[in-house]
Amino acid sequence: MIQLLLILGIACIAYEGAWGEGLWPVGFAEGVLLVCSPLAFLFGVAWASGEFGGAGIDHGNFAACRRAERLLLGLRLLGTAWYCFCVLSMGWHSAVRGAVGDMIVLDEAITLAPLLCYLVGIYWASHPIEHRIRVSVLWRDLHRGLPVYAPLTRAKALWQSVRHHMLLVLVPVTIILGWSEVFARYVRDAPVFDTIHAPLREATVHAVHYVGIIAAVFLSPIIIAALWDTVRLRSGTLVERFRAMCVSNRVRVAGPYVWRTGGSMINGAILGFFWPARFLLLTDGLLDRLADDEVESVLAHEIAHVKHRHLPWLAASLIATVLAAGWAGALFAMIFSLDPESSLFEFLLTTSTLAAALITFGFVSRRFEWQADAFAAAHLSTSAGNDVITPGAASTLAGALGAVADLNGIPVESLSWRHGSIAQRQARLRALVGRPVKNLAIDRHCGWIKRTTLLTLIVAGGPLVFAAIEQTRGQ
Predict the structure, then answer these.
(1) Cβ-based neighbours of 25, under 8 Å, separated by 6 or more
(2) Is the distance from CB of 288 to CB of 147 less than 8 angstroms?
(3) Which of 290, 327, 396, 344 is nearest to 88 (CA)?
């Protein structure tokens, strides 16, 4: 959720910068007051909610704790919505740029600062609830004889949340934004490009720009892996299983890496788009607390994301959605004789595009997760010599998912926009039992998603590419 909210805030800055000072532009001092005052009030509500929720746990009032958690989620959404409204309607970014100048990355950082501080504040406010849950899990694990870790202090828990959740977005965005601004100011008009024949000059300039962006995407996972405190496993049964799985599925992933979180996270992840800056991370808590067959099912799930190229296709589906929304907006303006250059129309188009992208992200991401779950169940089944999904394979991954939810203190019915609920994923796994491992329904569904994405990119993006080529030839 935090990553989506940050991306939404950054996207609003990009859109606001593209079409002026907003509908009701304000100055910097007035903007600080209008943006920050409501966020400060909402933070106060969040702080009180976290304290009351923690006290509710102390008194056995778990309903109050649940209400506090729901309120904290709502406050995240409400605060982000207010921030986006200020950026798009009041020209907050333009106000900041007018005060500090158009400095590389700095003006965007100051513009984003209220949202960053607010989201960090929500983490701070939720600590009383999170801390009590961790302590209760620690007490339970002591009785079960499981490995235990010292509870994190509030400051350490806050830094870990920022490091693991927010930097995942902030690191690549900062690098890409910095390169784009440096390119626009110092590279685009460099004398070296004057030596290139005119028809090829613009194409070369664009190529250099995109090469820099690809390099930023390549470097970001390396930086994030270092910030996340990871260490590579060099030998052992887990490493052998992982390498065999990569070879059999013809994928290249570096690792596995132990993601050291002090036992505060039970998770696995693939970090990065491209080899060799693509890593498999498994948290220390996951390796300590899951059985070997459950860890193997997590490995298979993560490898499925690489084998089926879920990350690139997810990005492509978002691009296709944005392009399609742009054409739909143009068609809407033509049918109803609206001015497509008016601020109101662009505001409505921006908000509807962001909403469509958010819906697409959740829809596609959940189905890719289901496909990865099915792949893991198929892997465990075929490893045992079966050509159908076995009850044991389905229950192993379902058990791993349940253990992750249990150890993280998350109800299996709790909904996630990106992954759906654990209960839903477990039910889908059980429904696979007895099905042939090849040509599963979810594989066909994901195939249709990819084909639809590709067709949309061709239809909606083709004219733009053709126009760009013609413009380059004309120059």
Answers:
(1) 90, 91, 94, 95
(2) yes
(3) 344
Which residue's entry shows tokens 């509870």? 151
Please tell me which residue, 438 or 370, carries the higher pLDDT value: 370
Residue with token string 């903007």: 31
Segment 187-239, tens digit of pLDDT: 877 777 667 666 677 777 778 888 888 888 888 899 998 888 899 998 888 89
Amino acid at 446: C
Token output for 90: 């009041």
Cβ atoms of 94 and 16 within 8 Å: the answer is yes
314/373 Cα distance (integer angstroms): 17
Q: Which of 114, 101, 86 is nearest to 21 (CA)?
A: 86
pTM of structure: 0.83
Q: Helix H segments across 336-437? A: 343-383, 391-407, 422-431
Which whole-number Å values give the CA distances from 403 to 235, 356, 397, in the listed order?
26, 34, 10
Indicate the DSSP class of residue 471: H
Residue 232 DSSP one-character state: E
At position 394, the amino acid (one-letter code) is A
- The pLDDT of residue 450 is 96
At residue 198, the pLDDT reads: 65
